[in-house]
Design brief:
By secondary structure, this protein is of the alpha+beta class. The chain is built from 3 helices and 7 strands.
Length: about 140
Amino acid sequence: MQKEINQTWSFNASPQEVWGYLTKPELLEQWMGSTNFQPIIGHQFQLNGKGGCVNFCQVLEIIPCKKLSYSWRVKNASGVITVDSKVLWTLSEKAGETELKLVHDGFTTLEDHQAHNNGWTTLGNRLTALLHPIKI
């Protein structure tokens, strides 16, 4: 069983612009859901997904415009942690674009891995729509 998810996107945007969508609550909320995120190591926050899922997180590492990592925990209705994992975002400039890589590691069940992989695909599509708006 795979224990990690790896996804990559490329944006015709600066690393600073993409970074904003990872660290500014008002921008995070446009694609991930409501949050009380603050880019401060040790800060505990929640991400409330648009589908009703609540993720409990803590900022682990920040290198502005290059790297962001946080713990990612999911609790069931009884308050028991069912997913205890880590999210790592890395940004790099390539050929005038910003490459954004996601590694989400620590899954213990295939079901959780598949559900989160599908979730990140959906979220990545939302982020892509925000950073590559359709022009009419």
